[in-house]
Design the sequence.
């Protein structure tokens, strides 16, 4: 299966409240539309796992399908999401005060309150910079297993408020030519500073139509135009996702953004978009991008940005 | 009868101009956005002949952008000569101001444009369909043609804005278009 990844969901100590009541995971309510969907299999409970990755800043919930929480053991979960390769670097799952984070295929359990959670050190080492900045790695529980450590999340609330302020600024733009450079600067700031999380939040903002489609079009162009390897995967994910929008402005913004990224990996998504597209003009514009990407695929070295 | 090319201000003004997108528009009316996109100066509008066989649209785009502030997509709309004539608009031979002599020769001014003739030209263009009249040359393609133009000498390097040339170079490696 494409994109399969074995990951470890940490298990709390017996005296920790981290996973004390995992029934919350299944009873938590959904508020907003999900950012993306995860499917997996919990080997321990031998049950399928389905989750919706959503925005923690709005306190939405997760339904993982996890129904039991044996204590004192590591828990192995196999992710079977078909599009794992397209997931943002950081995706968040929330249930009330608990947050689970998918970081490049690695799952962490966390909380907005400083509840200790554990992750193996080798996994922690693979956390991207945004996660390591947010999560102050503090070894409070000692070594639990080979390479095991404990992490706290005391900065989560402030961090989310910061991101929200930046996004509010973005939503307030008029999209005129005069404010274009400042606009691009704000988009850059969100992506450079908040990385995968910032991109995921931008995507959420656009999907939930909390931003005018014409502004969203410019945002998507700017997102594709950034030269930032760390968020390439996240931005690619957001742009290919936006190709499915019901708004022609958003679809075209995603089309241009993907042309700016110039990543031939987008060819299947562009082809699918051409198949779906009802507007003859947009279909033509998508074909322009397809031709460019196919040309880049033919000469990846000479055509690379 | 030549076809004229006009750079758009915003693709969004044309993209959704299909009248089926506007339930409130009365029969035979057209939306205002595409009309406003065709901004005039002294009741005239700058265009290029797009089907001359001398310069491709991509080369015209390169010449136009090479002279601008930044490397960007070239989004344009085309007008048929007969629509221009039917709208009562005159065509004047005025040399262009790009780093390409041939593109400059293909430049024209549409002159003596009234508000009514501008609306008539827009309506005629929309009747032909936005898919047939509007298009975009992606930025990377513009960059490739700017570098080729400089290499092959049809773009005067001295007139190409350094910032644009720098951006074009970073968009395409020299192995594709050696400088």
Sequence:
């Amino acid at each position: 299966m494409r994109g399969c990844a074995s990951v470890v969901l940490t298990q709390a100590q017996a005296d920790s409240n981290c996973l004390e009541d995992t029934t919350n995971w299944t009873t938590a309510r959904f508020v907003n539309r999900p950012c993306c969907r995860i499917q997996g299999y919990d080997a321990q409970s031998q049950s399928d796992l389905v989750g919706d990755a959503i925005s923690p800043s709005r306190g939405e919930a997760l339904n993982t399908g996890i129904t039991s929480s044996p204590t004192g053991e590591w828990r192995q979960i196999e992710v079977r999401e078909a599009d794992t390769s397209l997931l943002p670097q950081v995706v968040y799952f929330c249930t009330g005060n608990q947050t689970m984070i998918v970081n490049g295929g690695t799952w962490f359990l966390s909380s907005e309150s400083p509840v200790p959670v554990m992750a193996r050190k080798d996994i922690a080492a693979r956390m991207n910079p945004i996660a390591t900045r947010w999560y102050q790695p503090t070894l409070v529980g000692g070594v639990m297993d080979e390479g095991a450590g404990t992490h706290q999340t005391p900065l989560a609330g402030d961090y989310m408020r910061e991101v929200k302020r930046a996004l509010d600024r973005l939503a307030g733009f008029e999209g005129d030519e005069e404010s274009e450079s400042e606009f691009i600067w704000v988009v850059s700031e969100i992506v450079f500073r908040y990385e995968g999380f910032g991109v995921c939040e931008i995507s959420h903002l656009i999907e939930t139509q909390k931003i005018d489609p014409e502004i969203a079009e410019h945002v998507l162009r700017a997102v594709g135009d950034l030269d930032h390897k760390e968020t390439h995967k996240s931005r690619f994910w957001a742009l290919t996702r936006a190709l499915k929008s019901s708004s022609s402005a958003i679809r075209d913004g995603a089309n241009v953004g993907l042309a700016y990224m110039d990543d031939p990996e987008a060819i299947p998504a562009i082809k699918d978009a051409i198949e779906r597209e009802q507007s003859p003009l947009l279909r033509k514009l998508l074909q322009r991008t397809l031709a460019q990407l196919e040309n880049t695929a033919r000469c990846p070295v000479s055509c690379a940005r | 009868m030549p076809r004229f090319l006009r750079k758009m201000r915003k693709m969004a003004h044309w993209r959704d101009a299909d009248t089926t997108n506007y339930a409130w528009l009365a029969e035979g009316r057209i939306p205002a956005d595409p009309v406003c996109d065709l901004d005039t100066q002294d009741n005239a509008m700058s265009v290029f002949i797009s089907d001359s066989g001398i310069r491709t649209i991509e080369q015209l785009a390169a010449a136009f952008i090479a002279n601008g502030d930044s490397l960007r997509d070239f989004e344009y709309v085309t007008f048929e000569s007969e629509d221009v004539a039917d709208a009562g608009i005159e065509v004047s031979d005025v040399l262009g101001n790009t780093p390409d002599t041939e593109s400059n020769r293909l430049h024209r001014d549409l002159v003596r444009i009234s508000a009514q003739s501008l609306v008539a030209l827009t309506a005629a263009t929309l009747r032909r369909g936005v898919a047939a009249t509007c298009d975009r040359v992606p930025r990377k393609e513009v960059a490739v043609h700017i570098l080729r133009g400089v290499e092959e000498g049809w773009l005067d390097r001295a007139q190409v804005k350094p910032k644009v040339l720098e951006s074009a170079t970073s968009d395409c490696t020299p192995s594709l278009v050696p400088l």
Q: What stands out?
A: Chain A touches chain B through 25 residues (CB under 8 Å). Chain A has two domains: 5-154, 164-303. The longest strand of chain A covers residues 36-42.
